[in-house]
Amino acid sequence: MKTVITIGRQFGSGGREIGKKLAERFDIPYYDKELLTRAAQESGFCEEMIKNHDERPTNSFLYNLVMDTYSFGYNASAFVDMPISHKVFLAQFDTIKKIADEGACVIVGRCADYALDEYKNCLKVFVHGREDMKIKRIMERHQLDEAKAKDLMIKTDKQRQSYYNYYSSKKWGRADSYDMTINSSVLGVDGTVDLLAQFVEDFEKQN
């Protein structure tokens, strides 16, 4: 197997669990928080700093500078002047590419689909779900009441959306940004894993 699967997800949709089970199904590496640990090791940033900036948007006007810096190779002076949030993003971006170069895997979040946009062996998936089912999952997982679970869901998704739309040229959660979007509330976690596994196998045959 050579497919790299990236999974964007709404908070509470089970995207993380689906990604993990999919990786287990194909016996390939899985990266979520593991990506942050590796990015810290390879970039020299402390892991705490990377976690603090994980999937968090920034309002810095230096965005174009960052993209130019990334596109044309690091310019030492530009990199020094860059906000820490951009440096962390670039560290993750580099790590995602290195991981993909090593072979088949599942990567959750962190604009991985955008980082691997040029990779022909990358399958880009987005997992969403019904609001009531997402809230129920969040309540169970985080021991929250319904109001707090809903508030956390809205806040987290806004954060992920802002981060993705800021750093990528695509729109978070919009169908044409991905190869497949799937409502995990319809088939449940295991049913969604089965469907995605079939999709991956068919994709492998085509490529």
CATH superfamily: P-loop containing nucleotide triphosphate hydrolases
SSE succession: EHEHHHHHEHEHHEH
Strand order of the largest sheet: 2-3-1-4-5
Mean pLDDT: 87
Envelope shape: globular
Main beta-sheet strand count, sense and barrel state: 5 strands, parallel
Number of DSSP helical runs: 10
What is the end-to-end distance?
Answer: 11 Å
CATH architecture: 3-Layer(aba) Sandwich
Rg result: 17 Å
Give the low-pLDDT segments.
Answer: 60-76
Question: Can you tell me the CATH class?
Answer: Alpha Beta
Beta-strand content bin? 5-15%
CATH topology: Rossmann fold
Query: What is the helix content?
Result: 55-70%
Helix and strand content put the structural class at alpha/beta
Give the tally of β-strands. Answer: 5
**Count of discrete structural domains:** 1
Describe this structure as you would to a colleague:
- This protein has one domain: P-loop containing nucleotide triphosphate hydrolases (Rossmann fold, 3-Layer(aba) Sandwich).
- The chain is 59% helix and 11% strand.
- The protein is built from ten helices and five strands.
- It has helices spanning 15-26, 33-43, 47-52, 63-71, 76-81, 84-101, 112-115, 131-142, 146-167, 184-206; strands at 4-9, 30-31, 105-108, 122-128, 180-183.
- The protein has a five-stranded parallel sheet, with helices on both faces.
- The protein is globular.
Any key phrases for this structure?
alpha/beta; Rossmann fold; 5-stranded parallel beta sheet; 10 helices; 5 strands; globular
SSE layout and pairings?
Elements: E1 4-9, H1 15-26, E2 30-31, H2 33-43, H3 47-52, H4 63-71, H5 76-81, H6 84-101, E3 105-108, H7 112-115, E4 122-128, H8 131-142, H9 146-167, E5 180-183, H10 184-206
Parallel strand pairs: 1-3, 1-4, 2-3, 4-5
